């Protein structure tokens, strides 16, 4: 049986949740077909993370370490992962559909001349090894079932926050193999010199379980403070519509939608956002959507699980107070 290979992304020595989710789904798929699940870890001084991967279900770990792999390099990471795939001939290569994952998956599939299933929200492997993925189209209004045509080294990325990582277990004796890939240091056409985190929003939007997002209805950047207070009370990240970003109220890193980020939190609270199709494209797979809008005909209400027709300047502070009160009660 060909194994399942899972690329587990790390940043600054921390495993990304999206990678652990891909590993969890790899284990689920492998369990059905009795396959091995091999995790691949690429970076500089990341060997200490191997134990975490073993605890989260990897039955073998391939480790590729070099100081030039400290930051993501499309060429070098593709070479490393392609080398791993050529070595173990997996039925499928899985990874999180993060910015890095989507970029790397496309390059890897081209290198391996294999199929690519991007941003899947469900996956299955048919008995003959064919990978079948479900993708959301038109802002989640349609579900497309896509089948790879050649059942070897099929590459798929998994939408973050849709799949669950396995509960970590105490395991021992999981083999860790070092992959020695000849890295042509002169070859990369791009080199990362510096990575600057978005100073303002500490929580990564695509990984946040709760997002409070604001749109043009906020009327100005100063009013995002209201959303930040609610977000703080809920432990949420703050997002924005393109109208708010185009107006310069929030950085582009906060934008949710077709030309922004795709998010799948447990809870998405849209404040003063009309719910244009391009905005929906980035958030329609959120588990619970709460819309606060003073226009009862706003399209966001067609999508919302709960709708509050009202002035956000009144509703948001009330919600914040209520969340704080409930939290305090919980502590008693
Ligand atoms: P509006 O549509 O102006 O809506 C503001 C809402 O606030 C209204 O519904 C109003 O009723 C409500 N409101 C006003 N005052 C209050 C109040 N006091 N209390 C409560 N509610 C209030 N958009 C994105 O968001 N993300 C994208 O990635 C994106 N990509 C795009 C790509 C393309 C190619 C194109 C053409 C467009 C894209 N857009 C995107 C833009 C999109 O079409 C909309 O213009 C945008 O989403 C509107 O943002 P908004 O909902 O904040 O503003």
Structure description:
This protein is an alpha/beta fold and 332 residues long. The protein has 2 domains: 4-178, Rossmann fold (3-Layer(aba) Sandwich), CATH 3.40.50; 205-331, Rossmann fold, CATH 3.40.50.1220. Helix content is 30%, strand content 24%. Strands 9-8-7-10-6-1-4-5-11 form a 9-stranded mixed sheet, sandwiched between helices. Strands 13-12-14-15-16 form a 5-stranded parallel sheet. The longest helix is centred in the C-terminal third of the chain and has 20 residues, at 312-331. The protein is elongated, with a radius of gyration of 21 Å. The N and C termini lie far apart (54 Å). The model has no long low-confidence stretch (mean pLDDT 93). The structure holds flavin-adenine dinucleotide. Flavin-adenine dinucleotide binds at residues 215-217, 241-244, 255-260, 272-274, 276, 278-279, 282, 292-295, 298, 311-313. Flavin-adenine dinucleotide (FAD) binds at residues 215-217, 241-244, 255-260, 272-274, 276, 278-279, 282, 292-295, 298, 311-313.
Structural class: alpha/beta
What proportion of the residues form beta strands (DSSP E)? 15-25%
* CATH topology assignment of the largest domain: Rossmann fold
Sum up the overall morphology in one term.
elongated
Secondary-structure element sequence? EEEHEHEHEHEEEEEEHEHEHEHEH
**CATH homologous superfamily identity of the largest domain:** HUPs
**Regions with little confidence, pLDDT below 50 for 5+ residues:** none
* Small molecules bound: flavin-adenine dinucleotide
Largest sheet composition: 9 strands, mixed
The count of β-strands is 16
Calculate the terminal CA-CA distance, rounded to whole Å.
Answer: 54 Å
Mean pLDDT: 93
Examine the secondary-structure arrangement and name the CATH architecture of the largest domain. 3-Layer(aba) Sandwich
Number of domains: 2
Name of the level-1 CATH class of the largest domain: Alpha Beta
């Amino acid at each position: 049986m060909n194994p399942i290979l899972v690329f587990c992304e790390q940043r600054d020595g921390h495993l990304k949740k999206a990678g652990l989710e891909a590993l969890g789904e790899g284990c689920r798929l492998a369990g059905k077909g009795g396959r091995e699940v091999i995790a691949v870890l690429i970076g500089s001084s990341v060997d200490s993370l191997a134990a975490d991967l073993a605890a989260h279900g990897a039955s073998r770990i391939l480790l590729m370490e070099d100081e030039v792999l400290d930051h993501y390099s499309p060429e070098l990471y593709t070479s490393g992962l392609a080398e791993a795939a050529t070595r173990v001939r997996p039925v499928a290569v899985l990874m999180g559909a993060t910015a890095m994952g989507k970029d790397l998956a496309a390059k890897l599939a081209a290198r391996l001349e294999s199929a690519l299933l991007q941003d899947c929200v469900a996956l299955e492997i048919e008995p003959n090894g064919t990978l079948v993925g479900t993708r959301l189209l038109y802002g989640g209004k349609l579900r497309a079932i896509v089948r790879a045509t050649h059942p070897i080294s099929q590459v798929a990325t998994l939408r973050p926050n849709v799949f669950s990582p396995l509960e970590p277990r105490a395991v021992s004796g999981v083999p860790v193999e070092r992959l020695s890939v000849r890295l042509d240091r002169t070859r990369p056409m791009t080199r990362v010199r510096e990575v600057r985190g978005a100073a303002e929003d500490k929580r990564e939007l695509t990984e946040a379980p709760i997002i409070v997002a604001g749109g043009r209805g906020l009327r100005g950047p100063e009013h995002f403070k209201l959303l930040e207070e609610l977000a703080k009370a809920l432990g949420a990240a703050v997002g924005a519509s393109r109208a708010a970003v185009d107006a310069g109220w929030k950085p582009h890193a906060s934008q949710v939608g077709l030309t922004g980020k795709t998010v799948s939190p447990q809870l998405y609270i849209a404040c003063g956002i009309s719910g244009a199709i391009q905005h929906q494209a980035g958030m329609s797979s959120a588990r619970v959507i709460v819309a606060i809008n003073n226009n009862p005909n706003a399209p966001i209400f067609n999508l919302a699980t709960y709708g509050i027709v009202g002035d956000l300047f009144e509703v948001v502070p009330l919600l914040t107070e209520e969340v704080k009160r409930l939290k305090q009660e919980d502590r008693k």
